[in-house]
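Most newcomers find our protein records easier to grasp once they have seen one. Read left to right, the backbone structure tokens trace the chain's path through space. Nothing more is needed to start thinking about how sequence determines fold. An example says more than a description, so a record of this kind follows:
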Amino acid sequence: MVTYYAASPELAGAINTYAEYLKAETLSVELIQEVAPPEAATASDQFDGEGLTIGLVKAEASPAALNEVVLEHPGARAEHSVTKEQLMTAMMEDLLAEQRALLSAMVPAGHTPSVRAAHVEALLAVQQAQMKALLHEQQAAMASLVSGGRKRVKAGLVPAPKSGAKKAAKKAGSKKTAKKTAKNAIAKKAAKKTAKKAVKKAAAKAAKKAGKKTAKKAAKKTARR
């Protein structure tokens, strides 16, 4: 049997490294890294980001040698009633199964798609649990806030309603009016004081002037005598 293969770079390197072992296990005369010829029986597989396509072609050998290989292979069916094509097909299926098993064994533990899928599912479950816990905490906090607000309303600790606000505004307006009235009264009182002072000054000046006139008259009378 001649085995042709086309694989991804990393997988091709592994096949080249273990070429002798793989030839012995798959009963291949040669392992050729090329595209299989049209007459080859081919199969492809994808796993863990790697790809492999193999083609099996009958090696040039005598019929006796071929029969010997078929009979010695543990997976072959040595039945005289089957045709040679059926024997070849069965042998290729067995070889493909063995190669899949060998390639799967080369994949490091913990890097298979099933393991990674289980890991992702576990991470998603943890995240969902965390989100549920956070949502529960937020709901509890909102309920506490609502309950506290209701208690403050009952205790009269909430802000005054609109009617109370209007009363407070009116009260504030009346206070402003009272202040203005007091200021006006003080201003009027100050004006009265100023007016009184002015009147007193004017009266004093008039009295002083009148005294001077009287003194002049008295002096004139005295001079005439």
About this structure: Helices lie at 9-17, 19-26, 63-72, 84-106, 113-154, 162-224. The beta strands are 2-7, 30-32, 41-47, 50-57. Residues 176-225 form one domain.
